[in-house]
Amino acid sequence: MAGLPRIVKDQLEQAKGACLAAVETYNRPGVAFRTRTFTVLMAIAWTSLFHAIFYRRARKPWYVRSGAGRGIRYEKVDGEPKHWELSECTRQFYGGHNPPQRKNLEFMVLLRNKIEHRHHPELDLALYGECQAWLMNFEELLVAEFGAAQALAGHLDLALQFSAFRPEGQQEAIRRLNSSAAKDLLSFIQSYRAGLPADVLESSSYSVRVFLLPKLAVRDNAADLAVEFVPYDPTNPEEMKRLKRVTAMIKEKLTPVASAGLMRPSEVVARIQEHLPDFSIHTHTQAWRTYNVRPPTGANSPASTRPEFCIYDELAQGYGYTEAWVKFLLRKLSDTAEFDRVMSWKPS
Question: Would you put residue 214 in left (φ > 0), alpha (ψ -120 to 50) or beta?
Fold first, then answer.
């Protein structure tokens, strides 16, 4: 960090220290509700990183007093300048741009504000993807702004797992997640995701989806690494199609099965008809077909749904729909052209 002003170095060290503490807490066995502490510490890390960037650019991340008259006067707290908090840093850094990294950051800030003083360990399973993306985005911005010498990758390892498959534990976590105590938080998570464009929702900069598969070594030198990250090109349609096919094959085994807090199709229709009188059961069927929310009736893998919108109930052998699905339909089908497109859908 030679050549950097002292204030930049201090903010940078604080950012890296808070980030490592966040990861250590998240990966520590036995920690209850690891997401809560992770978000608090990562918020500190991100804020310090932004402050380091602004100071390095000779820009003071301080609030300016309104109506201060001639010259620039800054707000003060206990005699010290009032620094921008993370939300303001995000707004100042990205300006009018809205990449997936920003949407991930804004989601995690809102989430931190909601869960900072609440205890819902069952949320860890639902939020892993956003947490992992938040960490990776931090590392990428750190390296982009201050060089590879500041990278934290060498300090971080893949957390070890006790077993290859944990369907019972995951199902129990999902059942707790749908309990009344966490319903408002789950609704917030689903609503936020439903409001994102498809390209943002599928971006690894917004949420990382990880699948651990046994690695078979077919060559002598292929056994050197037990874990290997395979790069992919999101601009290559054929490559992305193959990747999604593999992902879909794995998701068939891991899609959650639960019914608590879900709605029947008739309940979805009743909710939407309050705003869109022309919406019917037929419209609902056309909608889940158009948006590929669930497989057709009689499919070999009925649980291959988009779980943020629809979940298969194995016991009842039927489908339940989420609050996020209702909000998604209201937002999409309020557009007359989109409504007509859905109604004209036909199987390819």
Answer: beta
